[in-house]
Amino acid sequence: MIEPQDERTRPGTDEGFGDAVTFAFGDEDAELFATARIGFSPASGTLSALAVVFAGGDPVAAVARGDIAGGDVDWTAAEADGVRTAIDEPLRRWSVGFEGDGAGFSARFEALAEPMEFGADSPVAQAGGVEGYEQLCAVEAEVTVGGETRELRCLGEREHFWGAPHWDQIARAGTLSAWLAPDRAIALRTVRPAGAEGTDDEAVSAVLVDADPAEPAAGPEARPVAEPRLSTTYDPEGHQRRAGLELWVGEDDQLPRRAGGRALCGTTLELGRLRLDTAFFAWRMEGREGVGRYDLLRRADA
Question: What pTM was estimated for this model as a whole?
């Protein structure tokens, strides 16, 4: 179970160990989407910063930089290369901002449900060496593009992950989320081992946030998905364009829960020996529509 003390920075000593917090939000009608991340490497005392703002389907500002001198880092308040994050109330409220060339944002996040946990015993943590949690959030944001500021009220997510990914053994790692309503969300992660032939060899873990029809007053709960399945369609350059989810939530389920998504915007960022294809998707599930993030991080030589 994730508790408030899990918001603290993790004291890893391995050179490959990292600790990171990520925020993402988007509004399909406004055609505005953004993500921001700060990472910390305790062994070297350095930070990394990543942020992208999309407007009208195009990336209008981006930063991707590592090896930023940081010293000791506390997630209570952190800043790196124009990205700033803060914990206002552990596991409940956070704030994040980004100032870039041509666009930026300031946003407040408030948790709508309990954390969706990907623990050390999950298939993706065992395959990739990274564990953590993410939360569905209500977001209030001011996004500035080309000197014009717009206010948004939408859904998004805040995540906190840590570990030492084994990139010599990993071909790529995927992060997918769908924010469908204040009481429904999907979080899914994948890890494909190096040399794998296809998706059958990938480790996949997923969590579904949903209200219990028998106890709607209890609010939404986060339930691990017993057997999650993901199918993705790519364009000729290898960018994710469409995706389908089949979620067998309980071991004894007679039918799966299904969702489908299509890309609304995306871009590629070169991160040294890694390449990040980051995109925002429109999602539909059982009559509900929303948006979410679908990222693929892979070795540049994979």
Answer: 0.95
